[in-house]
């Protein structure tokens, strides 16, 4: 089995809902990051074997296999194919996993993996709610077998995040302190230029819009999302727009094209957990990855754990014993946003750059996902 090398990883700045990227068509947003990614490496685009992109709610402007349409809109060779992946919030991390698997298997040498999402133009869960015109209230309402197994329990990320906070005894104050730290870390990263190496402009838009000047007092005044609950809007990831891309290469491609790989994929896996809790799967998925590799949580210099909700990260920290000072050190989705289909490879670009900035060797990335699954990736920095 050959090794999968990371040649480069880039992303757009992340735009707020109805912000700087709201007017950009999703295909054009994908094309922008694809064009930029290919321009940064000495590779003939015709040598790319496939384009694998994540995208959730693939309807409207995001329909029609946006991996393929974005590549073509970027003006790149028609003979290069593309496919679009939906593993909910982990879609582009799964795209990266598929790219690595293809290279490791020897069936491909160069794959561009990434993702795109315009949540301003295509609202979250739009693909699910679109089914109402066909007589279904949600994806589960017509399924006898689903209800036989799970009954009438609510299936939603909000419910799952509340269940996690309750089960792990995570208070609203705990979550607000983590959220504040996310904003503070993101502001510091922007001021210090830590994202400069991974971020490509979209027109005149060059800086992430999400981070806010907030305080514990300001967050304490917000109403909870549900009566009697602990979560508020300040404790959830922001609705966002963005795109990201990673070029994955085999050893043969590295030699043929004279590339200098920045990192090597050490492990990829995905595991499932209770779909009602929905967002707790990063815990067993991380445990599984550590067992498979024989590594310890203390072996890692940096972690990216997607901040879908503050409770998700805090429960993961409690169970894994990871050092919180190594987790999301440049802020997370609460501050920087979570453009669903693009977030996986966006986080990877940040993880890779953080390892290079600090001289760290190993990084681990994991994401909770709709349906109760979670991807885990372990990367080793080279050089």
Instruction: Report the count of strand segments.
Output: 10
Provide the gyration radius in Å.
Answer: 20 Å
Low-confidence stretches: none
Name the shape in a single word: globular
User: Secondary-structure element order, as H and E?
Assistant: EEHEHEHEHHHHHEHEHEHHHEE
Share of helical residues: 25-40%
* Structural class determined from secondary elements: alpha/beta
Query: Given the structure, what is the number of helices?
Result: 13
Please report which band the strand proportion falls in: under 5%, 5-15%, 15-25%, 25-35%, 35-45% or over 45%.
Answer: 15-25%
From the structure above, extract its key features.
35% helix, transferase, 10-stranded mixed sheet, 383 residues, globular, Acetyl-CoA C-acetyltransferase, acetyl-CoA C-acetyltransferase activity, alpha/beta, EC 2.3.1.9
Would you kindly provide a written description of the structure presented here, covering whatever features stand out?
- This is Acetyl-CoA C-acetyltransferase.
- Residues 260-381 form the Thiolase C-terminal domain.
- Its EC number is 2.3.1.9.
- By secondary structure, this protein is an alpha/beta fold.
- Helices cover 35% and strands 18% of the residues.
- The protein has 13 helices and ten strands.
- Strand 3 (50-54), helix 2 and strand 4 form a beta-alpha-beta unit.
- Helix 6 (157-167) crosses helix 11 (310-320).
- The longest helix is centred in the middle third of the chain and has 20 residues, at 172-191.
